[in-house]
Every structure is written in structure tokens, then in C-alpha cells.
Amino acid sequence: MNGGESATRDGENAQSAHYDEIGVAYDAHYSDPTSESYRELFVNLPLLGSLDLRGRDVLEAMCGSGSTAAYVLSKGAHLTGLDISAKLMSVFRARWPQARAVQGSILATGFAANSYDCIIVVGGFHHIQPLVQEAIDEAFRILRPGGYLCFAEPHSGSIPDLVRRYWYKFDPLFERAEEAIDLGALEAKNAGRFDFVFTRFAGNLAYLLVFNSLVFRMPIRLKRFYAPILLRLEAVLAPHQGRRLSCFVLCQWQKKAHVGTKVVVALTLWCVIA
Fold this sequence. Notes:
Blueprint: H1 3-30, H2 33-48, E1 57-61, H3 69-74, E2 78-83, H4 86-95, E3 100-103, E4 116-122, H5 132-142, E5 143-154, H6 159-170, H7 183-190, E6 194-202, H8 205-211, H9 220-237, E7 248-255, H10 259-273
Parallel strand pairs: 1-2, 1-4, 2-3, 4-5
Antiparallel strand pairs: 5-7, 6-7
Helix pairs in contact: 2-8, 2-9, 8-9
């Protein structure tokens, strides 16, 4: 094992141990009814609502206890959940018995090439810095041509990220590898492989105090009282947010058809016409 592989393994082991430790609290805060409402309104519908998932093979990578599972399964998809944490995957298996559950790494899934129509990552990429590109490489490998990579992540270049960087240094809820993604750099590296269907910046008051109640140590029992107001405010403020004021970004990328395939199709059509 070389130095890079060793560092990767150490980082993943640290993340696995970290989420095994905080898994119960993490699941409680991110799976309560108010967080589920936030996820449905501001993540699932804008990120996935345009896709026909019926009968499709969908992978939720770095899934935790299954943040998009209810939505994906309700659309008739064949769902696989993938996560490095044994504790969170045990919750996933119990909660979503109709889905396939795999404990493993997004950096080396072991899945066959061209085996998924859609890969979803919600809040996972920023946990594996500086290896986000390696994760996208693996996603590209296992996506079928024309398949979608859909992700929602904290992004750099925003005012909230300035606060986040400081917070990450001192809050024990975060691992040392966590860092907002550099979307511009990722787009530059992947422009030849993906079409960028859309980019939407989002996240304000409800994102902070409802969806991320664990981070701000908000008691779960109180969320039902203030969540309805903040959810409405989030919807009002969202259209006026851009990169600088948003907490996270929603991206839908589509894997391009292989150049060789396009050439073969073009030659075939030319021969038929001729």
C-alpha cells in the first residue's frame, strides 16, 4: 500500500469510526419529521423531481440511514444504499428492507461499470476531502451513458462558508477532512465527461436551524414549534439567494455518451443514407 492509499484508508476509517460514534444522534436529528419536510421541499424535489426514476437503478452513495430513500423508492426505482459506516448501514437495512444495502466506499465501490442510471450524494462529498474528484471518477465509471450524478453539498465561495471553515476547526462533530466543495474546480475537471444540467444555490434559516439542528445543538423536541415558520421563510428567501449567500448547492450532471459510440452511430447512419 503506497502513501496515498494509506492516507485514503486512514481517512475513511476515521470517518467510519466518527459516524459510528455519533450515528444515533445524527439519525435522530436528520430523520425527524421537520428535517424530512426540509429534505423533501428543498433537496429531493428540486434535485430529483425532473427525473423519471421508475424502474431505474439508483445508487444513494454515502447514504447514512437513507436520506433520499423514501423519495427514490416512492418513484419506483431499484435502490442501492452505500455507506462506510457499519452503524448507519444497519439502520438503513432495518428502515429500507426493500432496498439493497452495501457497506463500502464511494472511492472503490466494487460495482460493475455502467451499472447505475442515477447516483445521488446528499452532503457526502465534503466529508472526503481532498478526494472528491476520485469519488466523481468512480461515479462516472459506474454510471451508464446518459445517467445522472445528482448531489447537494456545502460549497466554497460563500459567506456561510467563511463561518463554516472556522466552525469545522473547533466542533467535535466534524472530522478534520471536512471542507466545502470547490464547484468551479470540479466543473473544470469534468466538463469533458458530464453535461451540467443545472446548478442551484440554496439554504438559509431553515437549513441551519431545522435541517442542521444537530450542529447547532437545537433540541429536537423544540423543532416542531419553530420549523413551520422557518420553512416558510426559507421558501421566501430562496429565490433571492446566489452563490455568496447560500449554504449549499444542488447540482444535476448527466454523463455524456462515449465519443466512440457517437462516431459509430454517425457512420452507421451515413452508410444507411448512402
